[in-house]
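Input structure tokens:
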């Protein structure tokens, strides 16, 4: 790998033993092309860490909390560009090249369109609505694979140290620097949450939480409600 990687992929994990090997196996060949892969574990009780170590560039163990883990990974990352990836999300082919192209112009950050994996007939409709909403508002979610230049990350002050909606707040901060590059190439993210908790129930919960956050509700209050509902 070159001394300065062109891209660092930062993956926060917590008990992701069931998915982490498959994700990293897909990403490991990219290391030869200047991509650094950092797994930041927040205290998994399963064997996430031991499964990740042989495949990632580095595995870090940090305090639990997705925002904290992503910020910790960014501090250790050496790449010029940063991609924050959920452990159950799969990138499209050569996403690293798409990111480099997107960040070579006026945009300092961006995201991919998303596809929800699963059999429920509403999942493609929900994914399409998510992509359209994101394109219209310039707000992205973590499921869409947020990427940015290191300078943009630093200027935004990193992800806010809050337990929920950290991706929404980060999007707001980044929008002050440039509009997002909205890539039509699709990441594929697991529909397990939707299947487990019910599509309509999950959809209504997400809408309600985001509406209340937009109206000024505390992320800590919303996180407690989210955990209670789940």
């Amino acid at each position: 790998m070159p001394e300065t990687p062109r891209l660092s992929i930062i993956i926060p994990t917590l008990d992701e033993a069931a998915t982490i090997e498959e994700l990293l196996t897909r990403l490991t060949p990219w290391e030869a092309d200047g991509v650094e892969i950092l797994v930041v574990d927040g205290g998994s009780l399963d064997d996430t860490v031991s499964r990740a170590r042989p495949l990632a560039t580095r595995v870090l163990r940090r305090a639990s909390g997705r925002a904290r883990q992503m910020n910790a990974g960014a501090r250790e990352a050496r790449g010029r560009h940063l991609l924050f990836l959920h452990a159950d999300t799969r990138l499209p082919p050569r996403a690293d090249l798409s990111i480099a192209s997107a960040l070579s112009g006026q945009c300092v950050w961006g995201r991919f369109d998303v596809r929800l994996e699963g059999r429920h007939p509403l999942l493609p409709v929900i994914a399409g609505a998510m992509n359209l909403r994101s394109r219209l508002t310039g707000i992205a979610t973590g499921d869409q694979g947020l990427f940015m230049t290191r300078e943009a990350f630093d200027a935004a002050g990193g992800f806010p140290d809050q337990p929920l909606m950290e991706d929404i707040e980060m999007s707001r901060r980044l929008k002050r620097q440039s509009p997002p590059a909205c890539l039509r190439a699709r990441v594929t993210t697991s529909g397990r949450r939707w299947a487990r908790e019910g599509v309509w129930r999950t959809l209504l919960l997400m809408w309600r939480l985001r509406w209340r956050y937009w109206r000024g509700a505390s992320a800590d209050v919303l996180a407690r409600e989210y955990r209670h509902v789940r």
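Strands lie at 7-13, 35-41, 58-61, 81-84, 89-90, 109-117, 146-149, 181-190. Residues 30 and 155 are 28 Å apart (CA to CA).
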